[in-house]
Design brief:
alpha+beta; 4 helices
């Protein structure tokens, strides 16, 4: 499960890219502003009003999802690993420590609305992708 900022232009473009790349349909998505994410964030003791981070829960649907969630660059790299193919090699960037990777993520997160704007809802390229979203 990938939680993302549904109001962010960059975040939505990244989700649509992941949808295109994930031919096996492994990833599911939900907006950080929605009830599914809010419930998860609250149960795991994470802020429910901070939408500056992608959250990936690799073991979604298991008993204890709070034990294995990933944030920021860890989440992005794990999503790429899960979709496989040629993108899987980027997951090796996890050998770099988080303190090296995450400052770049945070810098982009701070100015993403200025650079990419607010997302204007539009139809998905494929109707079957809608099944991969939770509220």
């Amino acid at each position: 499960m990938v939680f993302f900022d549904a109001e962010c232009g960059l975040c939505n473009r990244c989700v649509r890219l992941l949808l295109r790349l994930d031919r096996r349909g492994r990833l599911r998505f939900a907006p950080l502003q929605g009830p599914t994410a809010r419930r998860f964030l609250r149960e795991c003791g994470l802020p429910t009003d901070d939408f500056n981070s992608m959250v990936l829960v690799p073991e979604w649907g298991r008993r204890e999802p709070c034990r294995g969630y990933l944030l920021r660059t860890d989440a992005v790299l794990e999503a790429l690993r899960q979709i496989g193919g040629g993108w899987r090699w980027l997951a090796w960037l996890r050998v770099l420590p988080v303190w090296v990777r995450d400052p770049f993520y945070r810098a982009v997160a701070r100015c993403r609305y200025r650079l990419f704007g607010e997302w204007k809802p539009r139809p998905l390229a494929r109707a079957e992708w809608a099944e991969r979203f939770l509220p």
